[in-house]
Design goal:
Elements lengths: L1 H8 L4 H60 L7 H11 L8 E5 L2 E5 L3 E8 L14 E7 L9 E7 L2 E6 L12 E7 L5 E6 L3 H7 L7 E2 L2 E7 L5 E8 H7 L1 H30 L1 H7 L6 E10 L4 E12 L5 E2 L1 H10 L3 H16 L9 E6 L7 H7 L10 E7 L7 H13 L3 E7 L6 H6 L4 E4 L1 H5 L5 H15 L3 E5 L4 H10 L4 E3 L9 H11 L12
Parallel strand pairs: 13-15, 15-16, 16-17, 17-18, 18-19, 19-20
Antiparallel strand pairs: 1-2, 1-6, 2-3, 4-5, 5-6, 7-8, 7-11, 9-10, 10-11, 12-13, 12-20, 13-14
């Protein structure tokens, strides 16, 4: 799951995410349009087959109607001249059959066109026998040479003593050329006989498994029979034939799907981007275990021992990566979560640091607060785990002066915090809004000089100003902390001047996780009998 989340939120993968969304949308739209087109094609093919089947239904109806007329109108003696005249009148009725005959004892005795035959034609066993006196017996697809119809084939339909020749009925004109057809006559027992169209299509259609919309072996296939189940028509069109016939339509549908996929994927990506933006991820996990703490050691320059740490907030993203404050602090302030966030950090730090401070030791712990949260009652409630007579910690709160900090109000809150045993330091002094006016107006315990002083190259203006800043803070009666110490030479100079109380920076140690800090303080921290001075 983490790998999927990492892929979704990583900036370098966004083009891949967008393409993947487009591809998914395109394939989904293509599948939907294919489903729709197949459904419409299947419906169209079924309509074509139904229309074609009407012709064969009419043939069957004509046979039955002609036999009914023969039963009523053939009243003369069989095979007499009058009988032949009556046959010919019936044969030339609209929709009538042209070759009628008298049938007796399994043989054709006389016909409308030939009269009395010199030799009766024995039809032999029928292909489909009549189930009762009112149904028709059929001899299917027989040679008609004996009736003077050389080279032709047809079927014999007989009911009682009357019968007729039913010629083969071709596929009706007007049926779509892209369809393959076969018409069969089917017996009740399942046997069938090809009558017209493409031989074998009916058999293949029965043998192949049926998919959605009649898909069988890469082709759309359907079979329909008339109400009597006598005439059955199988139709088939391959996907290849459809591509040839409807290539332009397919090309247009691909273009439309691509355009719609681009629009839809952009909409989805926008929703996805909002859902997986860092701000949304942070807010969803705000009350969970996302908060993490890092601890940067504070070095007591007089004792050359690490006697405390500054607690720095970190955040574990949903994919496990560690996020630094510059990304989430603006979100915390934007949504008014400064106090809840500080409480999360305080509770996590207390849980992790308490086991590191055995009886007989004390540890100074520094926290940064949001300037707008400088309210004694709220802060004393938040930092309660680090206060009280049973606490093993010396708590220091660092505040950064901003344009929103009103000195008189801030001074009242600072005094209340100090009365409760909290030490207050001005952080990042020398940068932003910090000034001598602030230093003089607030009864703080100490000052932490901005890292830009200590990190400045030797002989630079900032480096030369470091000594003046140290003197200025010391003359005000406040303790001095220098951060940003990154070289041995800078640390040695701070020790030599004798005016700096504490230092922190990468040369001493980078911010450490709980386990690394435990090892570090075990090596460089004070012995149980030592009690560190209080500092920021």
């Amino acid at each position: 799951m983490n790998s999927v989340v990492s892929f979704l939120i990583a900036a370098k993968h966004q083009s891949k995410v967008q393409f993947s969304l487009w591809l998914v949308c395109f394939l989904a739209l293509l599948a939907a349009s294919s489903w729709f087109m197949l459904r419409e094609l299947n419906a169209s093919m079924n309509n074509e087959v139904s229309r074609a089947l009407e012709t064969y239904t009419k043939v069957r109806s004509s046979v039955v109607e002609t036999l009914d007329v023969m039963d009523r109108q053939l009243t003369a003696d069989p095979c007499s001249a009058d009988y032949a005249t009556q046959q010919r009148r019936i044969a030339y009725l609209p929709d009538g059959m042209n070759e009628l005959f008298f049938f007796e004892h399994g043989k054709i005795i006389c016909t409308a066109n030939n009269g009395l035959l010199p030799k009766p034609i024995d039809l032999g066993e029928p292909d489909i026998a009549a189930s009762n006196p009112f149904t028709v017996t059929l001899w299917i697809n027989r040679n008609l040479d004996a009736l003077g119809l050389a080279g032709l084939r047809g079927s014999f339909a007989v009911r009682g003593n009357h019968g007729m020749v039913v010629p083969a009925t071709p596929i009706p004109t007007g049926i779509s050329k892209w369809l393959e057809f076969e018409v069969v006559l089917r017996a009740p027992d399942g046997r069938w006989w090809h009558t017209s169209g493409e031989p074998g299509l009916y058999a293949r259609s029965l043998a192949q498994s049926n998919g959605p919309f009649g898909l069988r072996d890469g082709a759309l296939t359907t079979i329909q029979c008339d109400l009597a189940g006598l005439h059955c028509l199988a139709a088939r069109v391959t996907l290849g034939q459809l591509l040839v016939v409807g290539g332009a339509v397919l090309g247009l549908s691909l273009i439309v799907c691509a355009i719609l996929a681009a629009w839809l994927s952009n909409k989805i990506y926008a929703q996805l981007a909002r859902h997986w933006s860092f701000e949304s991820r942070f807010l969803r996990r705000f009350q969970s275990q996302g908060v993490a703490c890092a601890y940067q050691p504070l070095l007591d320059l007089d004792m050359d021992l690490v006697t405390g740490c500054e607690v720095l907030a970190r955040w574990h993203d949903v994919d496990g990566t560690l996020v630094y404050p510059d990304r989430f602090i603006p979100i915390v302030e934007k949504h008014g979560l400064t106090k809840p966030f500080t409480r999360l950090v305080v509770d996590r730090a207390h849980a992790e640091l308490l086991p590191l401070v055995p009886l007989g030791k004390r540890m100074q712990v520094n926290f940064n607060i949001f300037p707008q949260d400088l309210e004694a009652a709220a802060l004393l409630d938040i930092f309660a785990p680090f206060l009280g007579s049973a606490s093993r910690f010396d708590l220091t709160i660092e505040i950064v002066e901003t344009g929103a900090l009103e000195l008189d109000t801030a001074q009242v809150q600072i005094e209340r915090l100090r009365e409760a045993g909290v030490h207050i330091y001005i952080d990042d002094f020398g940068a932003g809004y910090s000034s001598m006016h602030t230093l003089a107006g607030l009864s703080v315990d100490g000052v932490k000089l901005d890292r830009s002083f200590a990190m400045a190259p030797d002989e630079s203006v900032m480096a030369r100003m470091l000594d003046h800043a140290i003197d200025m803070v010391q003359d005000s009666g406040r303790r001095v902390v220098v951060e940003g110490v990154e070289t041995a030479a800078r640390l040695a100079a701070l020790k030599a001047c004798g005016k700096v109380h504490f230092a922190q920076g990468y040369y001493i140690s980078r911010p450490l996780d709980r386990d690394a800090f435990a090892r570090f303080i075990a090596e460089r921290g004070p012995r149980p009998s030592a009690r560190p001075r209080l500092v920021a």
